[in-house]
Amino acid sequence: MESSISQTLSQVLDPTTGILIVVSLFIFIGLITRRRRPPYPPGPRGWPIIGNMSMMDQLTHRGLANLAKKYGGLCHLRMGFLHMYAVSSPDVAKQVLQVQDSVFSNRPATIAISYLTYDRADMAFAHYGPFWRQMRKVCVMKVFSRKRAESWASVRDEVDKMIRSVSSNVGKSINVGEQIFALTRNITYRAAFGSACEKGQDEFIRILQEFSKLFGAFNVADFIPYFGWIDPQGINKRLVKARNDLDGFIDDIIDEHMKKKENQNSVDAGDVVDTDMVDDLLAFYSEEAKLVSETADLQNSIKLTRDNIKAIIMDVMFGGTETVASAIEWALTELLRSPEDLKRVQQELAEVVGLDRRVEESDIEKLTFLKCTLKETLRLHPPIPLLLHETAEDTEIDGYFVPKKSRVMINAFAIGRDPKSWPDAETFRPSRFLTRLRLGATRTLGLTPKRLDRLGFWNRAYQISKGVTSSLYHSGLVVGRARVCNSGYTRLN
């Protein structure tokens, strides 16, 4: 009797049997849970464990737009252990960006992003909460205020330099992309560090390029966490080196600015002292970050550490260089493709500004059609075509299940070309935005109020770009003058 009991126990406790019991239990729990929750949205069928990781090369804005044609405006993919959702329709985007904004307000961060932003010490990737709100307040009211932007002489200096360069090469071929990238790079660099720091620009651009590569690099550990400690691709070593390089570069600049601040006590009160972004951020500097009541005075409500300052500077350098250069280059490209719109821009510049002076900041609000041109450019060619969000809790969209910590990709490229919302969606037509002036401010983007709700984030994208639109206006003036001169030359011949 005892031997039969021990034999039975040994069979039950057999490792293979135990594993089968555990697996069966997990399958049973999974089936019960699946019956209780809504289904996942439609999407391509994946492989066990890796899911749809074999489709990584298709996770571009164009690739996801093609998937939307087959699976609809909400598509589900599984990358390893990570659930990903592609949003390609205005109706679903409204659910994410407006109706359930608090659920989708977080920003996802890969291993590279978390490490290179000092564990989300910046504003772009910080989770929504008191820290993010107060960081935003600092940036909006101090660093990126309109008064601050208008005081940056570096913008005017660099634009004038580009105009002279283009004017001196009339009749010759020039690389417009290189010219515009150099313009936005120089403006952003000088605004961040001051003109005295130009000597280190090449080194900093090298650091930026390495950061950009690491941000976009495929890391299997982002999708299968068990590979994190193995580091099969050697990315962790590159991350450590890249951040050490950045620390060495920006720490020296911060130290120089702190010494300059100490020496300002000897400067007469009436003297004007040029300040840059680092100076503005150092006004909130403390050895330890500190948050108090959000209703408190701004100067006392938040204290920034060195890591915060360095992370914010990287946000600005990435957000103010390539993205802005891309928007400007596409705007010029579309104007050259559309002679009628180019002529209209020329006419507006001639009427508002004239041809005997440069565009000033005070002219910007009067250049209505040129602003419409920028909006139409952002619609067709968004500099950041995929807007990434992360769910803070389990939720549902259109009857489909979206678990906590899912990555949601808003495909601004696909939504901007949605034929249901935009007549002649593939056509560059800035005049579509003039409807706003005829219908009133409530019909922003030239759409009905209902469609405005669906596509409201275009207005936010435009406002983000607005701080650098003077560069676009000056570039438009250069193109306009060049075309006028060329037309006159042809007629004379």
TrEMBL record:
Keywords: Membrane, Transmembrane, Transmembrane helix. One of its GO terms (molecular function) is heme binding. The chain crosses the membrane at residues 12-32. InterPro entries: CYP450_84A, Cyt_P450, Cyt_P450_E_grp-I, Cyt_P450_sf. It comes from the Eukaryota. It holds the Pfam family p450. This is Ferulate-5-hydroxylase. It comes from Brassica campestris (Field mustard).
